[in-house]
Target: Lipid-binding SYLF domain-containing protein
Amino acid sequence: MNKLITLALAAMALLFTPLTRADDVSEALKRFQAAEATAPFFANAYGYAIFPKVGKGGMGIGGAYGKGKVYRGGELTGTTKLAQVSFGLQLGGQAYSQIIFFQNADAYEEFTSGNFEFGAQASAVALTAGASAEAGSKGTSAGAGESQAENSYSGGMAVFTMAIGGLMYEAAINGQSFSFKPIN
Model:
């Protein structure tokens, strides 16, 4: 039974293994910039990390993986990888884009200091392309306006996701870990 689960997870991971190309990053940025909820963040954030395609799959035990790029003041500063393990009721696979905004230099430094992790309590705002989101991390609004964007950060970071495709049922506990490699 364990071999079957391992084989199924490996197959799902291969199906959703992301490749990061410059075009993918540009397209993901355009989609997030078009979302009304993220506009104030692009205008005021110290920097951001963007993952154009994160592949996620699970059957009881699940995982996700993605590669991305990190920017400070609009300039590319490095590359990053996202890894996630989840436990609980889950079945399926999906792909999504994710962006993490850094409110200030401290949040940026924390993320880029090496290996950074979001605990199971961290939450992300799920966006639909072209739709206005009303929810934010920790339950606050992420709508348009500078003061609302300032209040939507949690621990100096705000996380947004946008579905690309797939179908996944999930009631699981998970956390994300990130690595950072500066551009030399």
In short: The longest strand covers residues 75-102. The chain has one domain: 2-182. Residues 2-182 form one domain. The mean pLDDT is 76.
